[in-house]
Amino acid sequence: PAGAARDPRGVLTLGGIPATELRERFGTPLYVVDEDAVRARAREVLAAFREATARHGARARVYYAGKAFLSTEIVRWVREEGLAVDVATGGELAIALAAGADPFHLGMHGNNKSMAELEQAVSVGIGSVVLDSAIEIERLAAIAERRGVVQRVLVRVNSGVHAETHDFLATAHEDQKFGFPLQQAPEIVARIRELPSLEFMGLHCHIGSQIFGTAGFAESAARVIEVHAELLRGGDVPVLNLGGGFGIAYTRVDDPTPIAELADGIVDAVAGECAARGIPVPNLAFEPGRTIVGRAGVTLYEVGTVKPVQATAAVTRLYVSVDGGMSDNARPALYGADFSARIASRTSDAPPALARVVGRHCESGDIVVDAEYLPADVAPGDLLAVPATGAYCHSLSSNYNAVPRPPVVALRQGTARVIVRGETIDDLLARDMGVAAPNEVTE
Ligand code: LLP
Fold first, then answer.
1. Which overall architecture, per CATH, does domain 4-34+295-430 show?
2. Per residue in 32-70, pLDDT tens?
3. How confident is the model at residue 172 (pLDDT cuts 50, 70, 90)?
4. Ligand 1 pocket, residue 156 CB under 6 Å
5. What ipTM was assigned to the predicted interfaces of this complex?
6. Close Cβ partners of 178 (under 8 Å, ≥ 6 residues apart)
7. What gap in Å lies between CA 40 and CA 45, rounded to an integer?
8. Where are the domain boundaries for CATH 3.20.20.10 in the chain?
């Protein structure tokens, strides 16, 4: 994990702090996020896209995709490092605003934004709204008109490139809910250009998440540039937003393309396509989420039970149960996502044993790490660290089995502080309207 090392006792340290000290102070399970690592990564990603676009005489804006991991503190970190923020709901918008983010540096997404969300976005002066349907165009135009403002908008298109992790496949008619088919964009944009309360800024496309390599992005950009060029004949098209989706390493076998190489590859593909069509390179926008926060997060758990199970005649597997699971990390259950684990509280000379790290929930699919080699003496009380949990773990967390969400602790320059407090059972009971009701039952 980011900033991880071992102290002389063999205890894993995170940002210079022993994991055992974090357990004593904050308990387990615990989401730990390295603020220094988030900031450094935000700077690195911003620099990569800025430099790649500057070489072609254009500018780049990077929006942090808040859905990956959002709290007011995280918004402040990425804003201070020069990133804008992309929100997908009124709730995410409220968090960004509560962090003091300038609304002009926010963008809003969503295939079914409510009237209330659109009103909220327009009323605070959001920088851009990414339009996702014909119905929404009319709704947003009416709201902006009523408020006497001109709202900047992008149009989400579906490039027909659906990138899936290491692979991508092209289909002419993608069967999914987001955006407009690319061929429809000219007609949609013509409609927007008729509406005085909307200002068309450009196209937006996002091809998927946890994508490795540039091929899918380059293919998608090439297709979108063709339409972008066509739209230039009808007026200005100041930006092109190419979305996020840049993959990270979850385990040793993952080998993602370095971000600078990825940025160069994508932007060079865009520039090549623009040159071929004799148009200037537009200012570009990107929306990375996972690559900013993913590897800056670690979850700490305490081992509760260890149980050897004869998996097959030849294989014995240690089931190592921890005090969290699918409520704090739904990704293995949802996507079959792979993570790794190691003992954080000590080193061990015991031989490696095949282990499955599982949670405390009432489902056999409640897996944290499907297959990992842990020291054969792994035992109750050991602290386990699961790295790369900074993206889509806290944001996808739930109260399944009435389990309170863990706190989030941020590490900065050798200090640790709670940035999102953990839930308590009282938090859960507080919403249950039956709890405080007078007992009507007479005996
Ligand atoms: N922009 C748009 C329009 C998006 O829909 C997304 C992610 C992003 C940007 C950021 O993508 P990123 O850079 O983080 O890959 N829960 C799933 C991932 C869902 C991604 C949804 N959209 C997971 O845990 O893998």
1. Beta Barrel (2.40)
2. 999 999 999 999 999 999 999 999 999 999 999 999 999
3. very low
4. no
5. 0.98
6. 111, 132, 156, 158, 206
7. 9
8. 35-293
Tell me: pLDDT of 166 over 50.
Answer: no
Q: Where in the chain is the domain with CATH 2.40.37.10?
A: 4-34+295-430
Q: Which residues are annotated as a binding site for pyridoxal 5'-phosphate?
A: 245, 287-290, 392
What is residue 114's three-state secondary structure? coil
Ligand 1 near 289 CB (within 6 A): yes
pTM listed for this prediction: 0.96
Cβ contact 26:48 at 8 Å: no
The β-bridge partners of 330 are: none
> pLDDT class for 439, splitting at 50, 70, 90?
low
Structure tokens at 172: 């002419």
Q: Is-catalytic flag, 362?
A: yes
Q: What fold characterizes domain 35-293?
A: TIM Barrel (3.20.20)
The reply to whether ligand 1 has any atom less than 6 angstroms from the CB of 210 is yes
Ligand 1 pocket test, candidate residues 131, 176, 220, 290, most atoms within 8 A of CB: 290
Length of the chain: 443
Catalytic member of 205, 274, 362, 393: 362
Ligand 1 and 285: CB distance under 6 A: no
Question: Both tokens of residue 437?
Answer: 């009701």
Contact (CB, 8 A) for 1 and 14: yes
